[in-house]
Each structure stands twice: as structure tokens, then as C-alpha cells.
């Protein structure tokens, strides 16, 4: 284990990235445990307030991200300073992304259905950083031969093609596939070749006069969501806690 760590993490200079990822995941887990205890009214924890203002943990998170980021830029990339900056950055990023939905909606949606976006963003971030640690390079540059790497035109062409595939996948409404496709080009290629989601930019542009293609896209999206939405929500509930039930809307009297 020590030899593998030295060869694959320390020697390539990935130790700060590993420390940042570990701090990020640990901070998210600890934060969710504490917030769930607060929600259940258990333990010594409580919301932090400054007067009448509820101070969300995204606030210290932003401060830590800034401190860790500038600390990393000021250092030399190795040594104790780089490791400390990575840990500070990871802790801050965990606090910030745990309230990603709050930033997105500019509202306290932590325990609502919209708050699931925070859990999804944390999982995606951890997975992408894990791929970087495993040796994947954005746009598939790691797949090029030494001869191709010395050819600037070949590198630029490979990056351009992979970026185009990711962009097409994104325009087809497949944001997760596009994001992972930046790291793993084969994923972007799959997303670029498959049917677009019916509410995507691609569908509105290219399926407008193709009713059969649009109907097929609607049917595929329906079956996909029906198959995977339940398991995905169950995993999100297990990781981040089940959202509060949405109260029924009152009937309007006319």
C-alpha cells in the first residue's frame, strides 16, 4: 500500500489533491450528520445565528475556499504548506457544495426537494476528482501516444473533438454525461450519439419538424426516468437525508 501510494500519488504530486478530496468528503459527511441531528432535535448542536440572521455554513465555507485557494497559489505545490492549503480548500468546498442548492435558488431550500441538487453536486464533484486521482486527464490527452503528444496539431485536434462531443451531449440535455465526458471522452461520445431529451436545446432545434424522433425521445426519457428516478432518489435520501414533504397546494375557489 505504501509503495502504491508513493508511486501513484506522492511521486506524481497528487497528494494535495487526495487530501483535498478526503477533506471534502469527510466535511460533507460530518456536516450532514450534524444537520440531520439538528433537524431531529438531538444532540448539542444548533443553528448559528448573528442576531436575527441565520449564518449558513456556506459562509465559512467560502472563506475557507478563498484561504485555501490563495494559500495553494502562494505555495510551491509540495510540502506541508501545500498539504495544509489542500485540506483547508477541501473543507471549504465541502461546506459550500453542501449548500449548493441554496446558492442556486438564493433561498433556504436545504430540506426541500430542490435541496437534492446539493447532494447531486457533491457526488459529481467527488467522482470527478476521483477520476483525476486515478490518472484521467480532461479531454482524453492521457490517451495520446508520445508521438501524438509532440504533435501540437494532434493534441489540439483531440481536445477539440472531445470538447465538441461533450458540448453536443450537453445540448442534448445530458449534463452529467457531458461533465464526465470531459474526463472520459468515450462517455461524451455516447452522450453525443444518443437521442436528446425532449426538453433539451437540441430537441427544440432538430426535432421540431421530426415528430417521430421527438416521440421516440419522449418515450425514451419517460422509461429512463421511471427506471432510475426511484433508485437515484433513494441513494440521495440515504446520503443527504429525506426532504420535507411538500405541503399540498390549497384549492382555488372561483
From TrEMBL:
<protein>
    <recommendedName>
        <fullName>Integral membrane protein</fullName>
    </recommendedName>
</protein>
<feature type="transmembrane region" description="Helical">
    <location>
        <begin position="80"/>
        <end position="106"/>
    </location>
</feature>
<feature type="transmembrane region" description="Helical">
    <location>
        <begin position="153"/>
        <end position="170"/>
    </location>
</feature>
<feature type="region of interest" description="Disordered">
    <location>
        <begin position="233"/>
        <end position="254"/>
    </location>
</feature>
<feature type="transmembrane region" description="Helical">
    <location>
        <begin position="118"/>
        <end position="141"/>
    </location>
</feature>
<feature type="transmembrane region" description="Helical">
    <location>
        <begin position="15"/>
        <end position="34"/>
    </location>
</feature>
<keyword id="KW-1133">Transmembrane helix</keyword>
<keyword id="KW-0812">Transmembrane</keyword>
<keyword id="KW-0472">Membrane</keyword>
<feature type="compositionally biased region" description="Pro residues">
    <location>
        <begin position="244"/>
        <end position="254"/>
    </location>
</feature>
<feature type="transmembrane region" description="Helical">
    <location>
        <begin position="177"/>
        <end position="196"/>
    </location>
</feature>
<feature type="transmembrane region" description="Helical">
    <location>
        <begin position="55"/>
        <end position="74"/>
    </location>
</feature>
Amino acid at each position: 500500500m505504501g509503495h502504491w501510494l508513493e508511486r501513484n500519488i506522492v511521486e506524481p504530486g497528487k497528494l494535495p489533491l487526495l487530501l483535498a478530496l478526503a477533506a471534502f468528503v469527510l466535511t460533507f459527511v460530518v456536516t450532514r450528520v450534524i444537520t440531520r441531528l439538528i433537524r431531529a432535535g438531538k444532540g448539542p448542536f444548533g443553528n448559528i445565528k448573528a442576531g436575527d440572521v441565520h449564518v449558513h455554513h456556506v459562509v465559512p465555507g467560502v472563506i475557507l475556499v478563498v484561504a485555501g485557494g490563495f494559500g495553494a497559489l502562494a505555495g510551491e505545490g509540495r510540502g506541508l504548506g501545500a498539504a495544509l492549503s489542500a485540506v483547508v480548500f477541501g473543507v471549504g468546498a465541502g461546506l459550500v457544495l453542501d449548500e449548493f442548492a441554496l446558492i442556486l435558488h438564493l433561498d433556504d431550500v436545504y430540506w426541500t426537494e430542490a435541496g437534492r441538487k446539493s447532494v447531486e453536486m457533491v457526488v459529481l464533484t467527488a467522482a470527478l476528482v476521483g477520476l483525476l486521482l486515478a490518472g484521467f486527464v480532461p479531454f482524453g490527452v492521457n490517451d495520446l501516444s508520445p508521438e501524438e503528444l509532440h504533435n501540437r496539431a494532434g493534441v489540439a485536434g483531440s481536445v477539440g473533438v472531445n470538447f465538441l462531443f461533450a458540448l453536443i451531449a450537453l445540448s442534448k440535455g445530458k449534463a452529467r454525461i457531458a461533465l464526465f465526458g470531459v474526463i472520459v471522452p468515450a462517455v461524451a461520445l455516447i452522450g453525443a450519439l444518443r437521442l436528446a431529451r425532449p426538453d433539451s436545446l437540441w430537441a427544440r432545434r432538430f426535432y421540431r419538424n421530426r415528430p417521430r424522433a421527438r416521440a421516440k425521445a419522449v418515450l425514451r426519457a419517460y422509461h429512463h426516468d421511471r427506471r432510475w428516478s426511484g433508485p437515484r432518489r433513494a441513494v440521495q435520501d440515504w446520503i443527504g437525508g429525506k426532504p420535507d414533504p411538500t405541503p399540498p397546494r390549497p384549492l382555488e375557489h372561483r
